[in-house]
Inverse folding.
């Protein structure tokens, strides 16, 4: 989903190397293409470690921050920290950064009020998970790496209820469109809800496909 990960550039972005469009990083890389390649390799290894040893599943902003820190600590000095700049996509800003903590608290409170979606059918679970994905995505709490971080949190949520998401069956274009609509007018995240509903499997179904 590389096209979805490219944000609108700001005139003043404290996360960029001065005089460059490359993100500041722990690797000494000054070229964005080279950084992206290194990030993909390192975060893939971090993801394998996360799957083997997951972050405690508290389903709150701290949970998201811990996932992000584990994924990107070897790449970005600000891994695990919420952004302190505005970012946008396609001419539309994500949530203002000073509202992230408040919005996250409200979003995750509703998720906990719904008992972390426990006891729902596969279709019900996928639809509600899509709604919460839309709310979390609209926050975009990190300067980079939001999509990967939120998918890991959703995977932990699904596993608790005996489900799994087939992310590979969802194209980058489909995900980009659904996420864009969820944050620019589709308050119920209808497209995301349908996408996840159609790509949710029970663990038994997933095992039968192996």
């Amino acid at each position: 989903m590389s096209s979805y990960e490219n944000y609108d550039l700001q005139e003043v972005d404290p996360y960029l190397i001065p005089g460059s469009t490359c993100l500041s990083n722990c690797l000494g890389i000054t070229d964005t293409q080279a950084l992206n390649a290194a990030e993909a390799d390192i975060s893939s290894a971090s993801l394998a470690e996360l799957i083997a040893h997951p972050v405690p599943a508290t389903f709150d902003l701290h949970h998201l921050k811990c996932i992000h820190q584990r994924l990107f600590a070897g790449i970005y000095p600000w891994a695990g920290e919420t952004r302190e700049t505005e970012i946008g996509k396609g001419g539309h800003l994500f949530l203002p950064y000073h509202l992230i903590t408040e919005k996250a608290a409200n979003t995750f409170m509703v998720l906990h009020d719904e008992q972390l979606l426990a006891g729902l059918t596969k279709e019900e679970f996928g639809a509600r998970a899509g709604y919460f994905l839309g709310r979390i995505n609209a926050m975009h709490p990190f300067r980079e790496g939001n999509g990967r971080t939120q998918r890991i949190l959703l995977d932990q949520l699904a596993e608790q209820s005996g489900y799994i998401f087939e992310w590979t069956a969802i194209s980058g274009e489909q995900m980009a469109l659904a996420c864009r609509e969820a944050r620019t007018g589709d308050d119920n995240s209808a497209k995301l809800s349908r996408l996840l509903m159609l790509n949710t499997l029970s663990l038994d179904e997933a095992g039968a496909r192996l």
